[in-house]
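Q&A log
Question type: sequence-to-structure
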Amino acid sequence: MPYSLLTNSLAKEGLSNILEISRWSALNGFQALEVGPTVPLSFEECAKAKAETGVTIEALTYCRNFLSTDEDEANAHIAELKRRIGLAGELGIGLIVTSTGIDKTLEEGVYDRADSIRRIPERSLDKVARIFTPIIQLAEKNSVKIAFENCPLMGNIAISPDMWAKLFAVLDSKNVGLTFDPSHLHWQFINPYTALNDFADKIFHFHAKDTVIYKEKLEKSGFLTDFKWWEYKIPGDGELDWKKLMEILKISNYKGLISIEHEDAAWEGSLKLVQDGLIKSREYLENIELGREE
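Response status: OK
Response body:
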């Protein structure tokens, strides 16, 4: 499978020029890029980077809360998402990775505040449908697919198989699917292997990121006090079964990229550490594919 990387971790350490990122990627075994919002893009820069390095841009990522209670903020995010869809169409980039937005307003007249909070994802569904219907129409016009990432830590309701089914029912388009990230499912105690198999036909993009759960911390804090009982890791340094995940992708005839999303604190703090983490991730996953890892 072709390998990509999400540029966020590189940009965080100061490498945010698309040509420089493409040069480094080409030298280190990456065929494509998933470009985050902190990397400036223009048609000329992208064309030059591709011509020189052969590295393509396969996705633009813009995850924000499009249902923010701050109306100006929400409108600004929606406008920027639409701008990126237009840019993707112009550049021949076929995929936008995004979130849905979530309305965190509590229900009026609900005595049990916890019950109101629990129902926030499902209550946001109608608003997500209203906002994204014209966005998806714009994407279809530009030959761009929308892939909702399943991270719960942003403005998002596309966080579980139950919500994916509801979301695809109201946004019924062949241009709407998932960016599947198993790391988020693991710390939510959702079976990532079953989810990957069940939604194989809706997976447009795959984020390679691992998770470790610190059970001793969890036993003391529970899962509501804070999130110190789990941590993201590069593939192979956490608890996910990558051989099983890669086998499911192969059996399901997945045609997209394996995009490494680096958020492992053990491989952060300098540009070299981040780059080493990205290379280590790619090498580990390639060895899985070749049967060199047990």
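Response note: Confidence is low (pLDDT under 50) at residues 107-117.
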